[in-house]
Design brief:
Elements: H1 2-17, H2 20-43, H3 45-51, H4 53-59, H5 68-100
Length: 103
Amino acid sequence: MHDLNSMIWVEGRKAIRSHMPHWTAIGAMFMPLGITFLLVVAKNPEVSKKLGLVSVKASLFAYAATDWPAYMKTYAEIISAGGLIFFILVISWVFGREGRMAP
């Protein structure tokens, strides 16, 4: 049991000192804001004309209604793709740190 406690303490210290968990949390927090922005632009065509390239991205949402079910569907799609990327980053961080810890 002493080895498990030591391992948890070491991994906790590594997580506190690293910036990877912070960047992962920031990325996860800004995904809903980005989806909201694109749905607002898709709902208001006069705003999308002023934004140029963003209007092209927002036009992809033109087929969908700009309501809660559409928001949740888009959020689920982005979480499924972005979650995989975040998972890969976190796993590579965990195993990448193990090589540097060797004596």
